[in-house]
Design a protein that fits this description.
The complex is a heterotrimer of chains A (about 300), B (about 575) and C (about 150). By secondary structure, chain A is mainly α. Chain A has helices at about 5-35, 45-55, 65-85, 100-120, 125-155, 160-170, 175-190, 205, 215-240, 250-275, 280-300. Chain A has one domain (about 30-300). Chain A is globular, with a radius of gyration of 19 Å. The termini of chain A are far apart. The chains are: A mainly alpha (about 300), B alpha+beta (about 575), C alpha+beta (about 150). Chains in contact: A-B, A-C, B-C. The interface of A and B includes residues 40, 125, 206, 274 and 278 of A.
């Protein structure tokens, strides 16, 4: 066994650990922030951990049988953890390879697909509406993600995420990358399921949407997948588009990256606190405009800016 | 006053001219109430004449007067707003088989009222387009009418087996989305059966009155005149003082009791304080429905000092317990006045800041502009009241139309909008909130000295009627009292503002998105507790079939073709 | 749009955190708050005025024998209106400031007051005086310092 695959595996496990263990803390920070905006105390920062512990200890109730339904929560969380290994924490993704950009875009959609399948299998009309909303959001937001990453690919001339990161760290800020970064940030709001785009999970309108029939360990895994997803996407944003300052000392860089990701999530939380929910067609219209603006960034990239 | 007499005489003449000998008796109860007893076969003609005079339908009152008159009486209450006059059309029904002609085809807003009368007293409206059960549960036995005098208030009917409500079926291609009876944004149980195609609502069915508590029956059988205000203030969870004031005013009118001026001022001040905290509560609920929890938290933070103030003035945050027949039980001590001014100053400052912040909030506007549009025309047809009416351009306000308490001396400003959408209703309520603060300040500045209670020494005379309307935050609340012997009313009728407002819902959500249903319902500021202390349920419909979009349109076009009613 | 959001955020931050530490710190209601009814058994003389005016019918008065009148307060149904306090001539029943009255035992919500009644000197039975004033003529009026005249 050569050391390189073992090292890659170890680093992959580090990524997975970060995704699993730090994401509830990030969510706790966002909840506390929302409480501050609400002029109230709010839950402690460790509340999401406690929520997970409580839910994991509950009875596993299923509304329907079948293997896909049973495995859906694990599939959701598993795909997000796989995504974690494709996103760089240090200089390059642990399981990165040439062309991993395409794989990243597909894996990013998988957890949403697992949620949609669960929603339609739940048998509740609210879940069905939530599922169709989730589908519409997915179709609106994925193109933005794709275009933003393609802008990076065009600038760096490579389809590997690590390559784009390296190029960006070396070349400094550019207009096209800035546009792509903003587009990706706006997409993050929907990926994180935060207002004004928490439409699929609209509590007040459809009683919780896709997750209405999920409880106990299944709910724990779905929630964990969502929290991990928001942290991973924040990491992707800061690593690929804002990799400065680059200190060269790996542990410091990792800490800096995590701090930057947390700041991004804080901004997401502030936007979440000061917005009502949009309707699904309004959100789709909005993301179409964002995608078109991201294409402007692509145009800039093509002409060399 | 002389003006009202003159108008009453004119109305009397007009109706007499129309139905001739059909007008049996005309009398004036309290000075602002004209009571016309008409022959049953002339009821519809008399109604037509009143509508021609631009009267607005309020409610029906079905009374079992068999001990007094050996028949049933149904009273139709109308209001001539601009002339400050109430007109009561009274007609008798046969004691063995009570029927009256239905007036719903003339006044769509009478739909629920007539069915309620049938459920409660057993007087069947002939020709009613939808004579289904409104108030009573589906498993309530046939032939048992709770508001009849021989029906004991604590009777428990035997459990029924195998009975289920018959829900309407969705139209072709639509699926059913049930909202309620338990749902996150409904504070009280009500069942809306939405028929949806994708995300668009194409029809609905409604079943309510899960909260019916039999309050009117209690008021007639168990409680005495001075105990009823405590029941009245528990009709609603937010606007208790409105109901106790309206009840006391109705009895005071019927008995000719003159309330001291200071008491009237304090009643006005407490009513306006209630409006302030109720509108702030509504603003929070509207925000919560839209997912904007920050608005919920902040507005409820802003209203909390008002609740503490109420606790200091009256002894409780919400059930003030201040009203009694003849005035108030508690005075407003002079030491509390500077505290009131301080609290309303702070509320005003924060409300203005919130208003200035949200008018520019495009996301909020995207969810409320052109959502749940209620046209002025339809608002008049179904007799919508309160901010939903004023937001559609209908200029009615009970404080100006039938001044009570101290509103003749400290009048409010009429706040209207024209667009009739959710945003307009929000603007109307914010303006009213700020105007209420102005009225509180003015009321306190001009607060007269003197007594707050006039002692009622003589027994309240029986068989008198009194109608009192009070502008609750949600709209106009109507209390009707017919005095009886034995220290209690013979009949006490309550119509809350949400009662007519809910009947406007199907038109407002027609072809709206599902996402807009909660906020549209919320923008009416529905208070199901108020609505359901009576007996009635029903979806505004003229057929027994599904409320399809086609049917709603057909109904609406049909009424327009008849030339409208106003 | 951005200014609207900034204004909203400013309102929030200016308010600070308003959560009260209750129940970890006490929170007293405003003076004059109508809380749980409190009985002073020394002052009650069994007139039943409170029972007469209670809208919820919480108070039941009955004679348990020749010398004993029992008043029972089923105050789980009390609506805290304060009419009993208003009517009582001896201020034997008052509304306290207590609002923490939740309990899981129904027995906690019943109060029983036994009043020793004076017997008739001729037949020996308990009697209700014609008016409360008659009774007070015998027992004496209560003075402001708590004694009896």
């Amino acid at each position: 066994m050569t050391t390189a695959p073992l090292l890659a595996l170890a680093l992959a496990l580090v990524n997975v650990a970060v995704a699993l263990l730090l994401s509830p803390l990030a969510e706790g920070v966002m909840r506390k922030l929302k409480a501050i905006v609400h002029s109230r105390q709010g839950p402690p920062l460790t509340q999401p951990y406690l929520d997970l512990l409580k839910l994991l200890g509950k009875e596993d109730l299923r509304t329907t049988g079948g293997l896909p339904y049973a495995l859906a929560p694990a599939l959701s969380l598993g795909s997000v953890l796989l995504l974690a290994t494709l996103v760089p924490l240090g200089a390059a993704p642990p399981l990165g390879f040439a062309g991993d950009l395409i794989v990243l875009i597909y894996v990013a959609a998988t957890s949403a697909v697992a949620l949609i399948l669960t929603a339609f299998a739940s048998g509740s009309p609210y879940a069905a509406i939530g599922g169709s909303r989730e589908m519409m959001m997915l179709l609106s937001v994925e193109p933005v993600l794709a275009v933003a990453l393609v802008v990076g690919a065009v600038k760096a001339g490579t389809l590997s995420v690590g390559g784009i990161l390296a190029w960006n760290a070396e070349h400094g800020p550019t207009i096209s990358m800035a546009i792509a970064a903003v587009a990706l940030f706006l997409a993050l709001q929907a990926q994180a399921g935060k207002l004004p785009f928490d439409i699929p999970e609209a509590d007040q309108e459809i009683m919780g949407g896709p997750l209405i029939e999920q409880s106990g360990p299944r709910l724990a895994l779905f929630r964990w997948a969502l929290w991990a997803k928001q942290l991973i996407f924040a990491l992707l944003l800061v690593q690929v588009f804002v990799p400065w300052p680059h200190l060269g000392i790996v542990p410091l860089d990792v800490v800096l990256t995590l701090v930057k990701a947390l700041l991004v999530l804080v901004l997401v939380g502030v936007i979440d606190a000061v917005n009502p929910r949009l309707r699904i067609e309004q959100a789709m219209g909005y993301y179409m405009r964002v995608a078109l603006s991201a294409l402007a960034g692509l145009a800039f990239a093509v002409i060399g800016m | 006053m002389a003006n009202v007499q003159g108008v009453a005489a004119q109305v009397n003449e007009a109706v007499a001219g129309r139905i001739g000998a059909g007008l049996r008796v005309a009398s004036q109860g309290p000075p602002d109430t004209l009571r016309l007893v008409v022959a049953p076969e002339k009821l519809r003609s008399a109604t037509e004449e009143l509508l021609r005079l631009r009267a607005r339908f309020l409610i029906t009152v079905g009374i079992d007067t068999r001990p007094l008159t050996a028949d049933y009486r149904v009273l139709y209450l109308f209001s001539l707003d601009a002339e400050h006059l109430f007109v009561v059309l009274e007609c008798a029904a046969d004691p063995d088989d009570p029927h009256v002609d239905s007036i719903t085809s003339l006044v769509p807003g009478a739909n629920w009222a007539e069915r309620e009368c049938r459920d409660a007293v057993g007087v069947t409206p002939d020709g009613h387009p939808d004579p289904r059960r409104l108030l009573l549960a589906d498993d309530w036995p046939e032939g048992l009418f709770p508001l009849r005098r021989d029906f004991p208030y604590d009777y428990r009917p035997p459990a029924a087996g195998g009975v289920a409500p018959v829900p309407k079926q969705p139209p072709e291609g639509a699926s059913v989305l049930p909202i309620g009876p338990f749902f996150p944004v409904l504070e009280e149980p009500s069942y809306w059966r939405l028929f949806v195609e994708g995300e668009t609502v194409v029809g609905c069915d409604y079943r309510g009155f899960y909260n019916h508590r039999g309050i009117e029956k209690l008021g007639e059988s168990v409680l005495t005149y001075n105990e009823i205000p405590y029941l009245a203030e528990r009709i609603c969870g937010i606007c208790g003082f409105i109901h106790s004031t309206a009840y006391c005013q109705a009895v005071e009118k019927a008995a000719g009791i003159e309330v001291p001026r200071r008491a009237r001022y304090i009643r006005s001040i407490m009513l306006e304080l209630e409006r302030v905290h109720s509108h702030l509560l509504w603003l929070g609920i509207a925000g919560h429905i839209l997912g904007f929890d920050t608005v919920l938290m902040q507005t409820w933070r802003m209203r909390e000092p008002v609740m503490w103030l109420a606790e200091e003035i009256s002894g409780n945050r919400k059930t003030y317990g201040m009203n009694t027949i003849g005035g108030l039980r508690r005075d407003l001590p002079a030491a509390v006045v500077p505290k009131v001014l301080k609290v309303v100053d702070e509320v005003e400052r924060e409300s203005v800041a919130v208003r200035d912040a949200i008018v520019g909030d495009t996301t909020l506007l995207a969810r409320t502009k052109n959502v749940g549009v209620l046209t002025g025309e339809w608002a008049r047809q179904v007799c919508v009241v309160g901010p939903p009416a004023r937001a559609s351009g209908v200029p009615i306000d009970a404080r100006l139309d039938h001044p009570y308490a101290a509103y003749d001396e400290v009048p409010p400003r009429l706040c209207t909008q024209q667009a009739g959408d959710t945003w307009s209703r929000l603007l109307v309520r914010v303006e009213e909130l700020l105007d209420s603060i102005r009225q509180v300040r003015e009321g306190l500045a001009r607060l007269p000295d003197g007594e707050v209670l006039v002692e009622v020494v003589d027994e309240i005379p029986r068989d008198r009627i009194g109608i009192s309307v009070v502008e609750a935050p949600r709209g106009e609340a109507v209390h009707f009292v017919m005095t009886g012997g034995d220290n209690r009313p013979y009949r006490w009728r309550v119509r809350a503002p949400t009662y007519p407002n809910l009947q406007a819902m199907p038109a407002m959500i027609d072809h709206a998105a599902i996402a807009d249903f909660p906020i549209t319902l919320g923008s009416l500021d529905p208070c199901f507790s108020c609505t359901e202390r009576v007996e009635a349920i029903d979806v505004r419909t003229r057929t027994r079939r599904v409320y399809s979009h086609k049917e709603l349109l057909a109904m609406s076009r049909d009424l327009t073709r008849r030339g409208g009613r106003r | 749009m951005l200014t609207a959001k900034l204004r909203e955020a400013l309102i929030c931050f200016r308010a600070g955190r308003v959560t009260l530490p209750y129940p970890f710190a006490p929170h007293d209601p405003a003076p004059g708050f109508r809380g749980k009814i409190t009985l002073d058994p020394d002052r009650c003389f069994g007139c039943g005025g409170c029972a007469n005016v209670c809208p919820a019918g919480v108070i039941q008065v009955r004679d348990a024998g020749q010398l004993l009148r029992v008043l029972e307060f089923q105050w789980r149904r009390c609506t805290y209106c304060g009419r009993c306090e208003e009517v009582c001539p001896e201020q034997a029943i008052t509304m306290s400031q207590q609002f923490e009255t939740a309990t899981d035992r129904g027995d906690d919500m019943v109060m029983r007051l036994e009043v020793f009644m004076g017997p008739c000197q001729r037949c020996g039975r308990c009697y209700t005086p014609l008016t409360p004033l008659d009774r007070m003529d015998r027992t004496g009026f209560r003075t402001s310092d708590g004694g009896r005249s």
